[in-house]
Design brief:
Elements: E1 4-6, H1 12-50, H2 60-69, H3 81-85, E2 86-92, E3 95-100, E4 103-105, H4 107-110, E5 115-117, H5 118-128, H6 132-140, H7 144-161, E6 166-168
Length: 169
């Protein structure tokens, strides 16, 4: 990771006067970065499902059922509603979540009458067929150093733009 040393040349007022501006700009840029990471994870999970990258198959009975109902034969894509509901969503200040936030009525395709939320369905599917965490662990965490380095570059640029002398070790 890049080490950043901030060296003030005696003008402490410059730092304190610019702190609120710097914090607001930093929060904005961090939020953009977090959104990009969340959207990256969303895209990878959807691509993984669409391309069958997760090493799971249907039981013969489920495959027959899907065939009889004319549903998509791929794992996790019976109707396409689940994959369509996967999104990157801002859930708080500088916080994003990637998951299934929609809802579906089971009677639409499966003859049931219970309405379940996509969050509930996602938690059931996550237990059966893990796809969010393995994608996060294998793809996003692999880029962790790159993310840290880009954040360091961003911080240095923002500090320099405020006239603060910065050294990168």
């Amino acid at each position: 990771m890049v080490e950043i040393n901030i060296r003030l040349t005696g003008d402490w007022n410059k730092l304190t006067n610019n702190f609120n501006t710097l914090k607001a700009k930093l929060d904005t840029e961090i939020d953009k970065c977090l959104k990009m990471v969340a959207e990256f994870l969303q895209r990878l999970v959807k691509e993984g499902i669409e391309q069958g990258k997760f090493p799971y198959t249907h039981s013969e009975a489920w495959a027959r059922f899907k065939d009889e109902k004319g549903l998509d034969p791929r794992v996790l894509i019976a109707t396409g509603q689940y994959i369509a509901s996967i999104e990157a969503k801002k859930v708080g200040m500088l916080q994003y979540s990637v998951g299934s936030f929609g809802g579906m009525h089971t009677s639409q395709n499966f003859g049931g009458t219970k309405t379940i939320g996509m969050q509930e369905l996602a938690s059931i599917l996550e237990d059966m067929i893990p796809h969010f965490f393995p994608t996060y662990q294998n793809e996003v965490m692999a880029k962790q150093e790159d993310i840290k380095n880009r954040f360091s570059e961003l911080l240095v640029a923002l500090l320099k733009a405020q006239g603060i002398d910065v050294e990168v070790a």
